[in-house]
Amino acid sequence: MYDYKIPKTEDYYKIREYYRNKELQKASILFKWKSEDIKIPRNIEAILADCGSIGYCKDNDTWYMGSFTGMKDKLNEFTEYVGITLDTSHVTKTMANNKEIVVCGNNPFYLPDSPIFDWYAGFSEDIDISMYFQLINSRNIPALTADSDQKANQIKKAFEQIKAGVPVVITTDIFSGTETIDLTDKSLIEKMQYITSFNADVEKRFSNQRGIDVNTLDKRAQVTSDELNQFTDVTSNNFLVMLEARQEFCEKMKDIFGINIECVRNPIYADEPSSEETDSEEAQEAAEETPEDGNKDKEEEDKDNENMEA
Which residues, in sequence order, are CB contacts of 113 under 8 Å at separation 6+? Predict the structure, then answer.
C-alpha cells in the first residue's frame, strides 16, 4: 500500500554535487574585488577557491588559472607559472612569475579548497541518506505474514481496493493463519534531532574553515557561551590568511604593472552591533553624564520658576 522510490546511486552523486556547488557559490562572495584599470574575471573567488590561484598578464591583458612549475629562486619564490586562459580556447602559456604575470593565491601556499568542498559534500550526502532512511524506517507500516501465496495475493488485492476507495469483499478465513509483525521502529523519529544537530556542526566547521562566522547556528539552551564561541579565533585567523594573500597580489599589481586593484571583505559578512549591544551603549552614555550637566539643568529650572512667579 505504501510505495516509495528508493534513491539510486546516481541520485546520491547529484546530492554531493549540489552541496559542493552550493559551498563554492558561498565562497565566491566572501571577498569583493574592484578596479578602474582592468576588468575583473567573473567568479574570481570561485576560481581561487577551486583552483588555488589566478594570474594576470599585462602584455595581452589576459587572466590565467593554473599552477607553478615548482622552480624557485634563492628567496624561495616561484619563478614559473603555467596558466590556462579562462575562455573556451584554453590556451596554455608558461610565464615568468612577477615579470610576465602576477599571481594571486587563495592562500600563501597557492592551494585550493577543493578537498574541503569534497569533504563537506561527502558528509552532507551521508547525512541526507541517514535522515531519509531513518524517516522511512520510522513509518508505522504493519507487515502481515500469510501461510500461503493465495492468501497473500488476496490480502494485497484487498489493500489495493482500499487504496482505490472501493468496497472490499473478503472471505472469513482469509486472515486465519496470518500474523502482524513490525518491520519499522516508530521511535527512530525521536533520534532525528541528533542527525540534524550533527549536520549543523558540520556546517559550522566547514564555514569556520572558510572564514565565515556561523557560531550562532543551532543555538540550544544547554550550549554555553564559551562553547558557542569556541571557533571565533579560528574563523578570524582563516579569513585573515586569505585576505593577506589577496592584498599581497594587489600590492604586486601596483608595483610591477602599475595597476590599481582592490580586494576587501564582502560587506554582507561584516559584523553589525546587535540591539542588545546598542541598548547597552546608550545606557552607558547616560550613566557617564557629568554632575555639572545635572546642576546646570537644575539651575535653569529654578530660573524659569522665578520668572514665572515675578
Answer: 27, 49, 50, 106, 209, 210
Residue 261, helix vs strand vs coil: coil
Q: Is the pLDDT of residue 225 over 60?
A: no
Cell representation of residue 119 = 569533504
Report d(CA 45, CA 69) in Å as an integer. Answer: 22
pLDDT in tens, 4-37: 455 566 666 788 888 888 888 888 888 999 999 9
> What's the CATH architecture for 28-111+238-263?
Beta Barrel (2.40)
How do the domains of the chain map onto residue ranges?
A: 28-111+238-263, 142-183
Q: Which sign does the torsion angle of CA 136, 139, 145, 148 carry?
A: negative
Torsion 71-74-75-76 (CA) sign: positive
pLDDT digits (tens, 9 = 90+) for 273-310: 444 444 555 555 555 554 555 555 556 666 666 655 55
Beta strand residue intervals within 173-241, DSSP E: 179-182
Q: Write down the residue that cell numbers 554531493 correspond to.
A: 16
Residue entry with cell 522511512: 136
pTM, 2 dp: 0.67
299-to-287, 296, 308, 309, 310 alpha-carbon distances in Å: 20, 5, 14, 16, 17
